[in-house]
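Practice problem: Sugar ABC transporter substrate-binding protein
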Amino acid sequence: MSASLSRPTQRVAVLALTMSAALVAAGCTSNDPATTPAASTQSAAGNAASDNDAPGKKVVIGFSGPAADHGWLAAINNSALAEAKKYSDVELKAAEGTNDASAQIAQIETFINDKVDAIVLLPTDGAALTEIATKAMQAGIPVINVDREFSSPFAARATVLGDNYGMGVSAGTYACKLVKDKSLTNPVIAEIAGIDALPLTQDRSKGFADALKACNQTVDNRVAAEFTVESGEKQASNLLQAAPKIDILWNHDDDQGVGVMAALDQANRHEMAFIGGAGSANAMRWIKEGKMEATVIYPPTQAADGIKLARLVAQGKGISDLVQVEVPRRVVLNAPVVNKANVDQYLPLGFES
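Answer key — structure tokens:
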């Protein structure tokens, strides 16, 4: 999704979990939206196979997340707070969101001194927070790492990630489907990336390019923005000037997509199939209106999933739908495509840009 601005990820196999309604955004196991399961089939009650969600031992969880200066980041924080409220056996100590690594280190120090039972941490910078997270682990406090990975495997008990490479693969696979369905000959495919220096952007672009190879296509025009509305509009305007005709456009981030759409409106350029990334509510409304073809989910529920895992780890439980008796060390969420066929199922989970 979205634009976590320092999110390195590794490309690993998706582990699909049916843990809560928060995981609906990760529930599709196919890039074909027609095969996406209805959101209603994934119960808000969570694990139906056991009593994992029944009240257990009281646990105190410390949560430290980013400053909510972006729609996706605000959704990350809000979903974590909302998830904790579902459990009478969870006391959540939520630190103020920050983009300052030093301030976040101080927050984790406080959690350690308070002897919380578990910590859920979306670090401002994974490398910068690795040492303090390792200290918490050494103090016997399990750390659940969210979205931006630490630089040491000893810094976290479990890690919850979105799939940036998978986002690109989903977008590229859908683009190939459009090429076939529309019988496009020599289509012009364009891409508006996020910040090129970030591994997450590189992963998304590589996944997109790799998937396009399946239908013998490449990206013809590409620009990079900065995950902001302003940069999205500026770079989209540059792209439109360079490419008088575009058949398919993939924009990495729905927040910067607000600016992209503004540029498309201003230039009256709606000839292309516009694919977004992250899964914002406004993108889904555009899909319903016919102004946008699709968007690819980057789940804003990762911290909520972190809360659920922290509770299970602190209570000595596993995940009921797995044979393994302990919580996995790594969970990578899926990146399904949302289009007009399934948008009503996903719209309630969309975040506001």
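Discussion: The chain has two domains: 21-160+300-334, 164-297. Students who identified this feature from the tokens alone can consider the problem solved.
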